[in-house]
Design brief:
Blueprint lengths: L3 H9 L19 H10 L20 E7 L4 H4 L7 H9 L1 E6 L6 H10 L3 H4 L6 E3 L4 E4 L4 E2 L7 H4 L14 H6 L3 E7 H4 L2 H4 L6 E5 L2 H18 L3 E7 L1 H9 L4 H22 L5 E5 L5 E2 L6 E2 H4 L19 E3 L2 E4 L6 H12 L3 E5 H6 L9 H6 L3 E5 L5 E2 L12 E2 L5 H4 E8 L1
Parallel strand pairs: 1-8, 1-9, 6-7, 6-8, 11-16
Antiparallel strand pairs: 2-18, 3-4, 4-5, 9-18, 10-17, 12-13, 13-15, 14-15
Helix pairs in contact: 11-13, 12-13
């Protein structure tokens, strides 16, 4: 079935200017952890409306959640009538539309998922962001300084992951309730510092290809079905995001990658877990929007004295860029905030909105009850490019906008995502 209530709710989240605001209280990625906990333990009521399960049972012993990075709703809707996996879901399960959180980024959603916190509370919102302990811009998912090609450079400088990342996880109550947790992720990322913190409550599993990952997930389901023991399995796949960045979400190569990913779930995973009773949830962290790197607006080239408006880090460099080319956050000297907003807005014209970040915070776009950690990390001025546009900072071989697909903003293409529920 197609969840009409969810479709209507997300449609209502669209603003007059075309923005999609996160539905933090209902049909939002933010509420997936509470849904999974309810399905496995039944000890708390989920914030996610239970109609996302349709007529499927509400309690399960095994849950497999597959997150396809950047598999936005724009890739699902055109395939509803034709793709075998989606046809199966319409017959036997339910397809809902959700909103992403804001910003529509992998950092916000991966860390937000495991910590069960929206960006305003987790303190993590973008690929590049400020870390006040270091007075530097960092890349949280790589545990490195922004612009470094090498991963893990924070650790080589004596920084401990525990000092930066949230210590809480929704996997903890699952583990305490007797559920075995597994994180099945690409081998290059599976043992990274973000997920390594979850080792006490989860088994980390690396895979080489998506088919390999799906087969490993199927083996774990078979193991727990045979034992009669509960399990939560998380599988993260980054192939769609990678191809969409490099070619654009509308490109034929991206369409082929989407079809191949869904086909592997249908033909590799589903036959191997048939009859297991596992609940399969397929979702995404965000979508992407088509952009043209040749049309990128570089603020430090448009505004010759750009750096004079910015605070500087412990390395003496301006605190930029934070965010991404679709949601550029700037750490402006407080006494120059209004002047910077006016100057940058004039330089960008209709290509972007330039707003004090507090405007977005007060509108609840990062989630409710922002913490001190978040407020210390987020820039005080934000640039939100118009659909199809990008705004960034240029530094040769360090910061450049080279992609044909991007995300981070509030457009429907970036903010609307699927949740597909199936019973194996």
């Amino acid at each position: 079935m197609l969840n009409e209530r969810a479709l209507h709710a997300v449609a209502s989240a669209r603003q007059q200017n075309g923005d999609v605001h996160p539905l933090y209280a209902s049909y939002c990625f933010r509420n997936l952890p509470s849904l999974i906990r309810f399905v496995l333990l039944g000890d708390t009521q989920p914030a996610m409306p239970l109609d996302v399960l349709g007529e499927l049972p509400q309690r399960h012993q095994i849950v497999l959640t597959i997150l396809f990075d950047a598999l936005g709703w724009q890739h699902i809707e055109p395939r509803l009538a034709a793709h075998p996996l989606l046809q199966r879901a319409l017959r036997e399960g339910v397809i809902s539309k959700l909103t992403a959180m804001f910003p529509s980024t992998t950092t916000a959603h991966l860390i937000g998922f495991f910590s069960d916190l929206p960006p305003a509370q987790s303190g993590f919102y973008e690929w590049f962001q400020y870390e006040p302990q270091l007075n530097r811009i960092i890349t949280p998912l790589y545990f490195s300084y922004a612009g470094d090609r090498e991963r893990g450079t924070l650790g080589k400088n004596g920084v401990q992951p525990e000092s930066i990342y949230p210590q809480q996880s929704f996997l903890q109550p699952l583990h305490a309730g007797g559920v075995s947790n597994y994180l099945v992720q690409p081998a290059w990322y599976a043992q990274g510092p973000v997920t390594a913190l979850l080792k006490p409550v989860a088994t980390l599993v690396g895979y080489r290809t998506l088919a390999d990952g799906l087969a490993q997930a199927a083996r774990l389901i078979a193991k727990h079905r045979a034992e009669g023991t509960p399990a939560f399995i998380w599988l993260y796949a980054d192939g769609v995001d990678d191809v969409a960045h490099n070619y654009g979400p509308s490109a034929d190569s991206t369409q082929a990658e989407v079809e191949a990913a869904l086909a592997q779930v249908e033909h590799v995973l589903m036959p191997r877990i048939r009859g297991s009773g596992a609940l399969v949830l397929l979702t995404a962290d965000h979508g992407q929007i088509d952009v043209n790197p040749k049309r990128t607006y570089y603020l430090n080239q448009l505004v010759p004295d750009f750096e004079s408006y910015l605070l500087r880090g412990s390395d003496g460099r301006p605190l930029a860029p934070a965010g991404s080319p679709r949601d550029l956050f700037l750490h402006v000297k407080p006494d120059l905030l209004e002047a910077a907003r006016d100057r940058f807005a004039e330089a960008l014209g209709n290509a972007a909105r330039v707003l004090p970040t507090r405007t977005l915070i007060e509108a609840g776009l990062f989630g409710p009850e922002p913490t001190t950690v978040f407020l210390e990390r987020v820039g005080n001025l934000v640039v939100l490019p118009a659909p199809g546009e990008t705004v960034y900072i240029f530094e040769k071989d360090r910061f450049e906008q080279k992609y044909y697909g991007h995300h981070g903003g509030l457009s429907p293409q970036e903010m609307e995502i699927p949740l597909i529920a199936l019973l194996a």
